[in-house]
Protein backbone atom coordinates (compact mmCIF):
# COMPACT_ATOMS: atom_id res chain seq x y z
CA UNK A 1 0.00 0.00 0.00
CA UNK A 2 1.13 3.52 -0.75
CA UNK A 3 2.14 5.54 2.30
CA UNK A 4 0.52 8.93 3.03
CA UNK A 5 3.01 11.53 1.75
CA UNK A 6 2.45 14.42 4.19
CA UNK A 7 0.23 17.43 3.52
CA UNK A 8 2.56 19.28 1.12
CA UNK A 9 2.85 16.42 -1.36
CA UNK A 10 -0.77 15.34 -0.94
CA UNK A 11 -2.13 18.86 -1.55
CA UNK A 12 0.69 20.49 -3.56
CA UNK A 13 -1.80 21.91 -6.06
CA UNK A 14 -3.33 24.04 -3.32
CA UNK A 15 -0.08 25.24 -1.72
CA UNK A 16 2.59 27.75 -2.66
CA UNK A 17 5.39 25.25 -3.31
CA UNK A 18 7.56 24.71 -6.36
CA UNK A 19 10.16 22.20 -7.58
CA UNK A 20 12.78 24.15 -5.63
CA UNK A 21 10.96 23.96 -2.29
CA UNK A 22 12.68 21.38 -0.05
CA UNK A 23 9.83 19.36 1.47
CA UNK A 24 10.47 18.90 5.17
CA UNK A 25 7.90 16.35 6.29
CA UNK A 26 7.34 13.82 9.05
CA UNK A 27 4.25 12.43 7.32
CA UNK A 28 1.80 14.80 9.02
CA UNK A 29 -1.91 14.95 8.13
CA UNK A 30 -4.09 12.13 6.89
CA UNK A 31 -5.59 12.00 10.38
CA UNK A 32 -8.73 9.98 11.08
CA UNK A 33 -12.22 11.50 10.94
CA UNK A 34 -14.03 9.36 13.49
CA UNK A 35 -17.82 9.02 13.86
CA UNK A 36 -18.87 9.70 17.46
CA UNK A 37 -22.18 7.87 18.07
CA UNK A 38 -22.17 8.82 21.75
CA UNK A 39 -22.08 12.52 20.85
CA UNK A 40 -24.65 12.04 18.09
CA UNK A 41 -27.01 10.42 20.63
CA UNK A 42 -26.49 13.27 23.11
CA UNK A 43 -27.16 16.00 20.53
CA UNK A 44 -29.40 14.49 17.85
CA UNK A 45 -26.83 15.58 15.27
CA UNK A 46 -24.43 13.53 13.12
CA UNK A 47 -21.12 14.13 14.90
CA UNK A 48 -17.60 13.33 13.64
CA UNK A 49 -14.27 13.97 15.35
CA UNK A 50 -11.15 15.06 13.42
CA UNK A 51 -8.45 13.59 15.65
CA UNK A 52 -5.41 15.81 15.20
CA UNK A 53 -3.60 14.14 18.09
CA UNK A 54 -2.64 11.53 15.46
CA UNK A 55 0.05 13.71 13.96
CA UNK A 56 3.81 13.07 14.28
CA UNK A 57 4.25 15.31 17.33
CA UNK A 58 0.70 14.80 18.60
CA UNK A 59 -0.98 18.02 17.50
CA UNK A 60 -2.34 19.89 14.46
CA UNK A 61 0.68 22.19 14.55
CA UNK A 62 2.58 19.72 12.35
CA UNK A 63 0.43 20.64 9.32
CA UNK A 64 1.52 24.24 9.60
CA UNK A 65 5.08 23.43 10.62
CA UNK A 66 5.84 21.30 7.54
CA UNK A 67 5.02 24.35 5.41
CA UNK A 68 6.68 26.93 7.66
CA UNK A 69 9.93 25.00 8.02
CA UNK A 70 10.03 23.99 4.34
CA UNK A 71 9.64 27.64 3.31
CA UNK A 72 12.15 28.75 5.95
CA UNK A 73 14.74 26.35 4.55
CA UNK A 74 13.89 27.44 1.00
CA UNK A 75 14.67 31.00 2.09
CA UNK A 76 17.97 29.92 3.63
CA UNK A 77 16.99 30.16 7.30
CA UNK A 78 19.34 28.47 9.79
CA UNK A 79 17.27 29.14 12.94
CA UNK A 80 13.52 29.16 13.47
CA UNK A 81 12.00 30.90 16.46
CA UNK A 82 8.61 30.63 18.12
CA UNK A 83 6.66 31.50 21.22
CA UNK A 84 4.52 28.66 22.46
CA UNK A 85 2.07 27.29 25.00
CA UNK A 86 3.72 23.95 24.21
CA UNK A 87 2.53 22.28 21.03
CA UNK A 88 4.10 24.73 18.62
CA UNK A 89 7.41 24.33 20.44
CA UNK A 90 7.30 20.53 20.12
CA UNK A 91 6.46 20.74 16.44
CA UNK A 92 8.96 23.49 15.57
CA UNK A 93 11.73 21.59 17.35
CA UNK A 94 10.91 18.31 15.56
CA UNK A 95 10.67 19.82 12.06
CA UNK A 96 13.76 22.01 12.53
CA UNK A 97 15.77 19.00 13.66
CA UNK A 98 14.52 16.97 10.71
CA UNK A 99 15.62 19.80 8.39
CA UNK A 100 19.03 20.02 10.05
CA UNK A 101 18.52 23.57 11.35
CA UNK A 102 18.04 24.82 14.91
CA UNK A 103 15.06 26.04 16.86
CA UNK A 104 14.73 28.71 19.53
CA UNK A 105 11.65 28.43 21.68
CA UNK A 106 10.11 30.82 24.24
CA UNK A 107 7.54 29.42 26.65
CA UNK A 108 5.74 30.92 29.66
CA UNK A 109 7.53 29.77 32.80
CA UNK A 110 5.85 26.82 34.52
CA UNK A 111 2.78 27.04 32.27
CA UNK A 112 3.29 24.40 29.63
CA UNK A 113 2.43 20.72 29.94
CA UNK A 114 5.26 18.31 30.81
CA UNK A 115 4.76 16.17 27.70
CA UNK A 116 5.23 19.16 25.41
CA UNK A 117 8.25 20.49 27.30
CA UNK A 118 9.81 17.03 27.09
CA UNK A 119 9.23 16.88 23.35
CA UNK A 120 10.83 20.25 22.65
CA UNK A 121 13.88 19.35 24.72
CA UNK A 122 14.12 15.84 23.24
CA UNK A 123 14.16 17.36 19.75
CA UNK A 124 16.99 19.68 20.71
CA UNK A 125 15.24 23.03 20.98
CA UNK A 126 17.13 25.91 22.49
CA UNK A 127 14.30 26.50 24.95
CA UNK A 128 13.91 29.38 27.39
CA UNK A 129 11.21 29.78 30.01
CA UNK A 130 10.15 33.41 30.07
CA UNK A 131 8.92 35.13 33.22
CA UNK A 132 5.67 36.16 31.60
CA UNK A 133 2.69 34.73 29.73
CA UNK A 134 2.34 33.51 26.14
CA UNK A 135 1.49 36.98 24.87
CA UNK A 136 4.79 38.31 26.29
CA UNK A 137 6.65 35.42 24.63
CA UNK A 138 5.06 36.13 21.24
CA UNK A 139 5.91 39.82 21.43
CA UNK A 140 9.58 38.95 22.06
CA UNK A 141 9.63 36.28 19.32
CA UNK A 142 8.31 38.82 16.82
CA UNK A 143 10.95 41.36 17.85
CA UNK A 144 13.69 38.74 17.57
CA UNK A 145 12.55 37.89 14.04
CA UNK A 146 12.48 41.60 13.11
CA UNK A 147 15.96 42.31 14.45
CA UNK A 148 18.00 39.10 14.28
CA UNK A 149 18.67 36.39 11.66
CA UNK A 150 15.90 34.08 12.91
CA UNK A 151 12.77 32.97 11.06
CA UNK A 152 9.43 33.23 12.92
CA UNK A 153 7.23 30.10 12.74
CA UNK A 154 4.27 31.20 14.86
CA UNK A 155 0.90 31.33 13.09
CA UNK A 156 1.42 35.03 12.26
CA UNK A 157 3.58 33.44 9.54
CA UNK A 158 1.15 32.82 6.67
CA UNK A 159 2.92 29.56 5.73
CA UNK A 160 1.57 28.09 8.98
CA UNK A 161 -2.01 28.98 8.07
CA UNK A 162 -1.47 27.56 4.58
CA UNK A 163 -0.38 24.18 5.93
CA UNK A 164 -3.18 24.07 8.48
CA UNK A 165 -5.86 24.73 5.85
CA UNK A 166 -5.34 21.13 4.64
CA UNK A 167 -7.40 19.65 7.49
CA UNK A 168 -10.70 20.81 5.97
CA UNK A 169 -9.54 19.42 2.62
CA UNK A 170 -9.27 15.99 4.25
CA UNK A 171 -12.67 16.37 5.92
CA UNK A 172 -14.34 17.20 2.61
CA UNK A 173 -12.48 14.35 0.89
CA UNK A 174 -13.98 11.93 3.45
CA UNK A 175 -17.51 13.35 3.79
CA UNK A 176 -17.95 14.29 0.14
CA UNK A 177 -18.98 17.82 1.12
CA UNK A 178 -18.43 20.32 3.94
CA UNK A 179 -20.30 19.69 7.22
CA UNK A 180 -23.03 22.07 8.43
CA UNK A 181 -21.07 23.15 11.52
CA UNK A 182 -17.42 22.99 12.50
CA UNK A 183 -16.40 23.28 16.17
CA UNK A 184 -12.82 24.22 17.03
CA UNK A 185 -10.74 25.47 19.99
CA UNK A 186 -9.44 29.03 19.80
CA UNK A 187 -6.22 30.44 21.25
CA UNK A 188 -4.40 32.71 18.83
CA UNK A 189 -7.24 31.99 16.35
CA UNK A 190 -4.76 30.88 13.70
CA UNK A 191 -6.41 27.50 13.24
CA UNK A 192 -9.93 28.98 13.11
CA UNK A 193 -8.63 31.26 10.36
CA UNK A 194 -6.90 28.38 8.57
CA UNK A 195 -9.97 26.13 8.56
CA UNK A 196 -12.14 28.92 7.19
CA UNK A 197 -9.63 29.48 4.40
CA UNK A 198 -9.40 25.74 3.66
CA UNK A 199 -13.17 25.31 3.49
CA UNK A 200 -13.49 28.39 1.28
CA UNK A 201 -10.74 27.34 -1.15
CA UNK A 202 -11.82 23.72 -1.46
CA UNK A 203 -15.42 24.78 -2.17
CA UNK A 204 -14.16 27.28 -4.77
CA UNK A 205 -12.19 24.44 -6.37
CA UNK A 206 -15.42 22.47 -6.74
CA UNK A 207 -14.93 19.91 -3.96
CA UNK A 208 -17.77 21.19 -1.74
CA UNK A 209 -21.08 22.98 -2.24
CA UNK A 210 -20.99 25.09 0.92
CA UNK A 211 -18.97 26.25 3.91
CA UNK A 212 -19.75 25.16 7.48
CA UNK A 213 -20.69 27.63 10.19
CA UNK A 214 -17.42 28.03 12.11
CA UNK A 215 -17.95 27.76 15.89
CA UNK A 216 -14.88 28.67 17.96
CA UNK A 217 -14.45 28.28 21.73
CA UNK A 218 -12.17 29.93 24.26
CA UNK A 219 -11.70 29.12 27.93
CA UNK A 220 -13.78 31.47 30.12
CA UNK A 221 -10.63 32.76 31.86
CA UNK A 222 -8.91 33.44 28.54
CA UNK A 223 -11.70 34.62 26.25
CA UNK A 224 -10.62 37.95 24.75
CA UNK A 225 -12.55 37.49 21.50
CA UNK A 226 -15.81 36.66 23.29
CA UNK A 227 -15.36 39.48 25.79
CA UNK A 228 -14.20 41.93 23.13
CA UNK A 229 -11.10 43.02 25.03
CA UNK A 230 -7.55 41.90 25.74
CA UNK A 231 -7.28 39.69 28.84
CA UNK A 232 -4.09 40.78 30.59
CA UNK A 233 -3.85 37.83 32.99
CA UNK A 234 -5.44 34.85 31.19
CA UNK A 235 -6.09 31.77 33.37
CA UNK A 236 -7.30 28.28 32.48
CA UNK A 237 -6.28 24.68 33.04
CA UNK A 238 -6.35 24.38 29.22
CA UNK A 239 -2.78 25.69 29.08
CA UNK A 240 -2.57 25.40 25.27
CA UNK A 241 -5.13 28.18 24.86
CA UNK A 242 -4.13 30.38 27.78
CA UNK A 243 -3.85 33.43 25.52
CA UNK A 244 -5.12 36.93 26.24
CA UNK A 245 -4.37 38.77 23.00
CA UNK A 246 -4.83 36.49 19.96
CA UNK A 247 -2.56 37.21 16.98
CA UNK A 248 -5.27 36.39 14.41
CA UNK A 249 -8.11 38.20 16.22
CA UNK A 250 -9.07 40.34 13.22
CA UNK A 251 -8.99 37.45 10.76
CA UNK A 252 -11.09 35.38 13.12
CA UNK A 253 -13.85 38.00 13.31
CA UNK A 254 -13.89 38.21 9.51
CA UNK A 255 -14.09 34.42 9.29
CA UNK A 256 -16.95 34.35 11.78
CA UNK A 257 -18.91 36.92 9.79
CA UNK A 258 -18.20 35.12 6.50
CA UNK A 259 -19.54 31.77 7.77
CA UNK A 260 -22.34 33.02 10.05
CA UNK A 261 -20.16 31.59 12.80
CA UNK A 262 -19.97 32.00 16.54
CA UNK A 263 -17.49 32.46 19.40
CA UNK A 264 -18.32 31.09 22.83
CA UNK A 265 -16.52 30.48 26.10
CA UNK A 266 -16.46 27.51 28.44
CA UNK A 267 -15.63 27.18 32.15
CA UNK A 268 -12.71 24.89 33.05
CA UNK A 269 -14.98 22.38 34.87
CA UNK A 270 -17.04 21.94 31.70
CA UNK A 271 -13.87 21.46 29.64
CA UNK A 272 -12.74 18.63 31.92
CA UNK A 273 -16.24 17.10 31.87
CA UNK A 274 -16.18 17.10 28.06
CA UNK A 275 -12.69 15.58 28.07
CA UNK A 276 -14.10 12.69 30.15
CA UNK A 277 -17.11 12.27 27.85
CA UNK A 278 -14.81 11.97 24.85
CA UNK A 279 -12.38 9.57 26.51
CA UNK A 280 -14.91 7.36 28.29
CA UNK A 281 -17.80 7.33 25.79
CA UNK A 282 -16.11 7.75 22.41
CA UNK A 283 -12.64 6.32 23.10
CA UNK A 284 -10.61 9.39 22.12
CA UNK A 285 -8.18 10.91 24.62
CA UNK A 286 -7.35 14.57 24.07
CA UNK A 287 -5.71 17.33 26.03
CA UNK A 288 -8.02 19.79 27.84
CA UNK A 289 -7.74 22.57 25.21
CA UNK A 290 -8.96 20.13 22.56
CA UNK A 291 -11.93 19.00 24.64
CA UNK A 292 -13.37 22.50 24.43
CA UNK A 293 -14.75 21.58 20.97
CA UNK A 294 -16.83 18.87 22.64
CA UNK A 295 -17.82 21.16 25.51
CA UNK A 296 -18.84 23.79 22.99
CA UNK A 297 -21.02 21.33 21.10
CA UNK A 298 -22.75 20.11 24.27
CA UNK A 299 -23.33 23.70 25.40
CA UNK A 300 -24.75 24.86 22.04
CA UNK A 301 -26.88 21.72 21.86
CA UNK A 302 -28.33 22.47 25.31
CA UNK A 303 -28.96 26.04 24.09
CA UNK A 304 -31.08 24.60 21.26
CA UNK A 305 -28.81 25.85 18.50
CA UNK A 306 -28.08 22.48 16.86
CA UNK A 307 -30.72 21.25 14.39
CA UNK A 308 -31.53 17.53 14.44
CA UNK A 309 -29.45 15.58 11.96
CA UNK A 310 -26.99 18.42 11.31
CA UNK A 311 -23.61 17.17 10.13
CA UNK A 312 -20.99 18.35 12.61
CA UNK A 313 -17.23 18.03 12.71
CA UNK A 314 -15.26 18.73 15.89
CA UNK A 315 -11.53 19.29 15.63
CA UNK A 316 -9.68 17.93 18.63
CA UNK A 317 -6.27 19.51 18.33
CA UNK A 318 -3.85 17.64 20.60
CA UNK A 319 -3.28 14.20 22.12
CA UNK A 320 -4.27 13.46 25.71
CA UNK A 321 -0.84 12.00 26.47
CA UNK A 322 0.68 15.48 26.22
CA UNK A 323 -0.97 16.59 29.45
CA UNK A 324 -2.27 13.42 31.15
CA UNK A 325 -2.60 14.59 34.76
CA UNK A 326 -6.24 15.72 34.37
CA UNK A 327 -7.45 12.19 33.59
CA UNK A 328 -6.47 11.02 37.07
CA UNK A 329 -9.00 13.29 38.78
CA UNK A 330 -12.76 12.69 38.88
CA UNK A 331 -15.54 15.21 38.33
CA UNK A 332 -15.40 16.34 41.97
CA UNK A 333 -11.63 16.39 42.05
CA UNK A 334 -11.44 12.92 43.61
CA UNK A 335 -8.32 10.82 43.04
CA UNK A 336 -8.77 8.14 40.36
CA UNK A 337 -5.41 6.48 41.06
CA UNK A 338 -5.74 2.69 40.74
CA UNK A 339 -6.11 0.28 43.67
CA UNK A 340 -3.14 -1.90 44.65
CA UNK A 341 -3.84 -5.62 45.12
CA UNK A 342 -1.70 -8.61 46.16
CA UNK A 343 -0.49 -10.85 43.28
CA UNK A 344 -3.23 -13.42 43.91
CA UNK A 345 -5.85 -14.41 41.30
CA UNK A 346 -8.69 -14.71 43.80
CA UNK A 347 -8.00 -11.31 45.29
CA UNK A 348 -7.66 -9.76 41.83
CA UNK A 349 -10.99 -11.28 40.72
CA UNK A 350 -12.65 -9.98 43.87
CA UNK A 351 -11.17 -6.51 43.41
CA UNK A 352 -12.37 -6.48 39.78
CA UNK A 353 -15.86 -7.54 40.90
CA UNK A 354 -15.70 -10.68 38.72
CA UNK A 355 -17.56 -13.58 40.34
N1 LIG B 1 -5.47 23.43 20.72
C1 LIG B 1 -4.20 23.15 21.04
C2 LIG B 1 -3.90 21.79 21.57
C3 LIG B 1 -3.19 24.13 20.89
O1 LIG B 1 -1.94 23.84 21.21
C4 LIG B 1 -3.55 25.41 20.40
C5 LIG B 1 -2.55 26.45 20.25
C6 LIG B 1 -4.89 25.63 20.06
C7 LIG B 1 -5.81 24.63 20.23
C8 LIG B 1 -5.36 26.93 19.53
O2 LIG B 1 -4.97 27.15 18.22
O3 LIG B 1 -3.80 29.29 18.55
O4 LIG B 1 -4.47 28.53 16.28
O5 LIG B 1 -6.18 29.28 17.92
N2 LIG B 1 -1.36 26.34 20.68
C9 LIG B 1 -0.29 27.31 20.41
C10 LIG B 1 1.04 26.73 20.84
C11 LIG B 1 -0.57 28.67 20.91
O6 LIG B 1 1.96 27.50 21.14
O7 LIG B 1 1.19 25.52 20.84
P1 LIG B 1 -4.85 28.65 17.70
UniProtKB/TrEMBL annotation:
Its EC number is 4.2.3.1. GO terms for molecular function: threonine synthase activity. The keyword Lyase applies. Residues 79-123 form the Rhodanese domain. Pfam families: PALP. Its cofactor is pyridoxal 5'-phosphate. InterPro entries: Rhodanese-like_dom (IPR001763), Ser/Thr_Dehydratase (IPR050147), Ser/Thr_deHydtase_PyrdxlP-BS (IPR000634), Thr_synthase-like (IPR004450), Thr_Synthase_bac/arc (IPR026260), TrpB-like_PALP (IPR001926), TrpB-like_PALP_sf (IPR036052). NCBIfam families: thrC. Catalyzes the gamma-elimination of phosphate from L-phosphohomoserine and the beta-addition of water to produce L-threonine. This is Threonine synthase. It comes from Pseudoclavibacter albus.
Amino acid sequence: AKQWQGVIREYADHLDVTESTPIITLGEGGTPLIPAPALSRRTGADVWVKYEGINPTGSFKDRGMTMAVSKAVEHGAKVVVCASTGNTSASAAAYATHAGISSAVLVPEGKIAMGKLSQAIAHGANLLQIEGNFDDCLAIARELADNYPVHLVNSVNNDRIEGQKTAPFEIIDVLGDAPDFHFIPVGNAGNYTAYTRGYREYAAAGHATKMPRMFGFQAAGAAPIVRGEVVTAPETIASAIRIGNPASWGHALEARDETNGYFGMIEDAKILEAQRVLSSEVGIFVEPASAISVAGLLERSDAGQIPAGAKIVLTVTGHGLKDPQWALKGADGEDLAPTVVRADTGEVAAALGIT
